[in-house]
Amino acid sequence: MLEARNIDLYYGASQALQQASISAAKGEITCVLGRNGVGKTSLMQSVTGRHIARSGTVQWEGKNITKLPAADRARRGIAYVPQGRQIFSQLTVHENLKTGFAVLPRAQRKIADEIFDLFPVLRKMLHRRGGDLSGGQQQQLSIARALVMKPRLLILDEPTEGIQPSIIKDIHNVITILKQQGEMAILLVEQYFEFARDLGDRYAVMDRGEIVLSGEVSVMDEQEVRQYLTV
Ligand SMILES: Nc1ncnc2c1ncn2[C@@H]1O[C@H](COP(=O)(O)OP(=O)(O)O)[C@@H](O)[C@H]1O
Ligand SMILES: [Mg+2]
Q1: Which of 43, 116, 171, 178 could covalently link to 123 via disulfide, CB atoms 3.0 to 4.6 Å apart?
Q2: Atom 6, ligand 1: which residue's CA is nearest?
């Protein structure tokens, strides 16, 4: 269980998050929605430790990790699939996947067959350079690399952004499978409303650094949420 509460985050003098709270539970998907620039990525990075909150607390599996560096959080099972994928274009698919090993004890440094079952295209392209993959394939690689880390919290930051529809469908299926397995908590940042609605259990909508709406997707007021997504 993740519980981030009342997070304030600054870049220099400019405040990116104001009293933002978000939670995530094992076996559930929490969607974070909102337009560009409202603080979605900043909130995720305050959870991963990439940026440290000025105030507020981050609790994970019952421990206070508010001040913990990113690498230590990763070792505690928090994996982040960054916006824009950020795979290593000069490394092969296999080498990219192996970068996920860094957070694992030596005995566990193995790419599970399941990862290739989820992303068959990666098995076929194992020795190709990351940069030779299509955008959608790179997104799949980025998710697979996070899964190599055997996360208990998986954070996906706009995984459908700029991706062709057929691969969006594949990614949708993978997220559904991961949820059904019930082993991890998932935080899904999205601007693609239908994707979030179909997958999410809970949702939070952000505007100008704050959480402005939140609740269960089953009783979400679609119109109300959409007004925060359209420009
Ligand atoms: N590294 C950074 N340095 C300075 N400002 C940043 C940085 N990252 C994001 N910002 C600013 O913080 C605000 C929130 O950005 P971000 O969290 O990326 O929003 P979103 O993910 O919702 O698009 C924006 O105004 C953005 O310009
Ligand atoms: Mg973002």
Answers
A1: 116
A2: 11
